[in-house]
Every structure is written in C-alpha cells, then in structure tokens.
Description:
By secondary structure, this protein is of the alpha+beta class. It contains 13 helices and 15 strands. It has helices spanning 9-19, 27-33, 40-86, 102-110, 128-145, 188-230, 243-289, 296-319, 332-342, 362-379, 412-415, 434-444, 480-491; strands at residues 3-5, 92-95, 98-101, 113-115, 153-157, 163-167, 175-179, 328-330, 348-350, 358-360, 384-390, 395-401, 420-422, 448-453, 459-466. The protein has a 5-stranded mixed sheet, covered by helices on one side. The relative contact order is 0.08.
Amino acid sequence: MSLEKTDPLQDVLLESEQSYQERKRTSWEKFLDKFKPRSAAMRTTVLVSIVVFFSLGMSLWFFWRTLYLPEIKQHARYLALEIEMLGQRDIEIRNAQESINLQVWLYQRLGVETVLNPDKFPNVKDKFIAEIFTDRLSDALARELKLKPNEVTVYFQFKPSPQIWIQTPQLQGNWLREPLPTYANYSPELLIGWFLGIPLLTMVIILTLVRQLNRPLRRLQQAATSYSKTGKAPYLETNHGPLEIRQVNQSFNQMINTLQQAEQERRIMLAGISHDLRTPLTRIRLSAEMMPDEDFLKEGLIYDVEDMDAILDQFISFMRDGSDEALHDTHVNSLLQEIVIQFKPLDIHFQPQDLPVIAARTLSLKRMIGNLINNAKRYGAEPIELSAYLDDEEHLVIRVADHGTGIPESQIQTLMQPFVRGEAARTIQGSGLGLAIVKRIVDIHQGQIDIRNHEQGGLEVKITLPIHPPTAEIPEPIGTFDKIKQKLSEHL
C-alpha cells in the first residue's frame, strides 16, 4: 500500500523538519574528522601544545645559532693555538729575571696538559646530547688545524669534573686534556626538565581550565537532554561561574520558562477545544438521530460526526502526550490484562510472564498499547499477539503483532510521522496520528520503537522500555572552596 498526506499540516511539518536537517559533510571534512580530537579539551590541549613546542623549538634554534655555535668556533680556535703551542717543547716565557717553560705555564694557568700515560686515557663512550656539541667542535677544530674531520677526536667528560679531551695527529696518539670548570653549573636534569616539563605543565593547566569550562557545558547538555526526554529540566545556576556561562544559563532558564508557559497555554487551548467543539458535535449527533430513518442523509451525517469525534480525540491525545503525568509503579501484566478485557471480543493472544514492577506513566502507557491494538484491528487481521518480556536486566519489551498483509519496508518510518496513513485507510476513521502518539509516548519514557513485518505475515511493533529510567542530573551544589575560587577568578 502507498502513503498519502491526510492534512495540509504535513507540508508544514516537512518544511520544519527539512530546515533542521544537518548539512552534508564534504569528503575533506570527513577525512579530517579521522584525525581531529573529538572533545574540546583535547583540541585545545593539542593546539596549545603545538604552540608550546614551536616556541621551544624556536628558542633552541635561536640560542644555537646566536650563542652555542659562535662559542664552539671560538673555543676551537683557542684549542688549535694550544695544540700548536704544546708542540713547541723548547719555548720559554721570560719575565724580568724569571723564565718558565711554555707547557708548564699553560698547565699552571689554564690546566691544559698532554696526557702521556695510557692508564689515564678517557674511556670514550657515545653520548647523544654531548655529541651534538663535540661533533661541531671536532669539525671546527679540524678546519683550524687544516685536518680531515675523522682525524680529530673530541670527547666531553662530565664526571668527576667537567673536562674535554682532544686527540689529533700532532699529539702522536696522546690526549690533550682541558678542564672546563664553568660547565659544572650545567645540569642534564635541568635541560630535560625545561624541555619536557614546560609542555607537560602547560598541558595539565590547559586540561584543568578546559575541564572547568566543560563542566557547566555538560550540565547544560544534561538539562537540555532531560527536557527533551521528560519535559522537565533542572534550574541552572546564574550567580556563579564565568560571565559567559552565567549568561548562557540565564538564557536557557528563560527559554525553559517560555516553553513551560507555551505548554500551559496549549493545555488551556486543549480544554477549550474539547469543550467548545464537542458541544456542537453532540447537538449535530442528536439532530441526526432524530431524523427519519428513511432519510438518506442520516447515515452519512452520523458517520461524519463519529469521524470528527474520533479525529478530535486523536488530536487531543497527540497534544496531551503524557509528559505532565507523574511516574507510578506499574504492573505491566495487570495493565495488559485490562487492555485485553477492554478490547473484547477481539481475538487477542496474551500469556503473562514474570515481570518486575517498572516506573512508568500508567495512563500514557495504556493509551500507547491501545493505539497499537487499534491499528492492528483496523489495518491488520486477527488474531493479535500481545506479549511482554525481559530483553535483559535493564529493559522490558512490549510486543504487538497482527496477521495482516504488512506494509513495504520503505514506508515504515514514514508511518510514524503525524498525519500520514496508508492508502488503504482512506475509508477508515482516523487522522494518521496513532503511531505518532505511540512514538511520542515512547520518547517520553526514554525507550525505543521497532516496527517491521514478521515472518508469519503482518506488522510487528516492539516497544523497548528501560526498567529504571535515568533521571535528570541535578547540578552539584557549590561548596565554600569553589565559591572562593570563583570570586578570585572573577577579580583576576
């Protein structure tokens, strides 16, 4: 069977639905989504970390080019002079009546000496960070001595005291040792702490700040979700927190207040419709009953009045979705047995099972199951299967199935839209709101609805309800310490 619109309001609903459809994402956006962090906290942390590491890299490059490289080249020149001077063993320095050997003078004044004892030679080991500097010093020293780079060996020894060892062909297999007392203040731990500690500390601070910002946003999201599912939302605090968050909370509270006022006006309008329209319908019905039986208009007039009355009932049921009804402890088996008795002599197969008591809106739940049985009676065929069972420890399933011809799979989701019926239902009373009412009641109970054609033929509807529906999460009360932090943040 095909589908038709039974009311011009369907065009308005479709236009409203299309205006809130999400824009299709491009292939490039989908590709970037695979790499971008999903949460705002991680995105902020990644962006700030990129800036911090870039700043560290630029700082290292700046000091390397403007401080370390010039110092290495200058030191290489001094070492080349010292090696040449140590090669001259007969040179003496005279001052007045005193004279001193050049090698002795270099050792006394600079600590530079040629180590001839192999037992005192250094044990050369690979040092990753130190080699960054010693390799540059070795290349610079080779250029000063006009040697090949592989002919010069430079080794830095930090313990027990900082000193540098040089080996060149001029030293004939011996080592030149130069103490570096100024390098005693250098600490590898301090360098690692500066290079890694600053990014880690920055990420911790950013995560803490983003978490403080996300906490009120999470409460806002929970309040909005609670209102969309239950029709109620907790009041959001507007006296504490950052100014922007307080303004958002205030706007949200005003929106909820406006929606509640609109809901109250809707209920007043429903009461007026129920009272003002049913009175003339009753008079028309009485007038039709008093017409002569042979009048050919009587049967059609009574049928139209009954049709209008049924449509009015559907409209009122659709608008009065049960969100204002309180939750009660509901015995599902007792409720289903009442419905079976109510629909006698309809052939309904029902076998009660062991079910727990659930928290539900009893009247709305009864109206929902009644609508499903009415649809099965009108558009399907008897017998009608009615059952309730546990899907798992947290969910209960209510199943209604008929033995009619079913409908095409492509039209199942469309049937749950308001004012939509099958083409075969043109001559049957109704407004196309039956399954729409069912869906609204299911949504209020935070459940799920599944409609499909079953194997025996006919339509099968499964309603999955949570046994313990989640309640709205109330924002945590603000303690004294949090208030002090809020005051300090506002002033700063």
